[in-house]
Please model this.
Amino acid sequence: MSLIRAEGLSHSYPGGVPALDRLDLAIERGRRLAILGSNGAGKTTLLLHLNGTLKPTGGRILIDEAAVRYDRAGLAAWRRRVGLVLQDADDQLFAPSVAEDVSFGPMNLDLPDAEVGTRVAEALAALDIADLAERPTHMLSFGQKKRVAIAGAVAMRPEVLLLDEPTAGLDGRSAKRLLATLADLERGGTTLVFTTHDVDMAFRFADDAALFDRGRVIGCGEAKAILADAGLMDRAGLDAAGG
Model:
């Protein structure tokens, strides 16, 4: 049984611009899924559907085989299970300090103050940024902002963490450090789903890969097989791993 499943998912932006076209995709519990495709293939749009930020114009999303609900209670329950980290961390950071920003989600769950504090401390430690707790968010480096945004999602203790281009803009050492942190989260029970243009990174890091083209999945399976398939990768507008 898939943890999350998209069935016939379609979405068009204002003006009739198509983004998803009857897309089918299954996300398996405990697997690292990389989503790849050229710009405009629908990768980010899918992530925005997988946590309820966008509502499809057709099709549906199921979690544990139950269709999701878009009312207030349904969305709140959904987002406790599925966290989203955007590509640009500045779109998610807004509190004066790192600790305040990371605490925002847990506080909105109406948890006791002690539980909020525990979650914030654990999330900061998991992302190796405990020393930044009191740092103003506007004084962080690009890489630090990414880690704080991820910590804010981790503090919600989601079953699934969606990440849009998590290593984009990071130098090689910072990217390697972030991937090691994500691997630790996965070993702790978090299912990872991420978009990327970095084929070689996905080949090394992901368990599974899905290739997108014009809002549809054109290939999905074990990452090493999918990403080394030159013909399939060419259809997605990408070079095969190692090519």
Notes: The domain at 31-41+75-209+216-235 is CATH 3.40.50.300 (Rossmann fold). DSSP finds nine helices and ten strands in the chain. Strands lie at 4-13, 17-27, 32-36, 58-63, 66-67, 82-85, 160-164, 191-195, 208-213, 216-222.
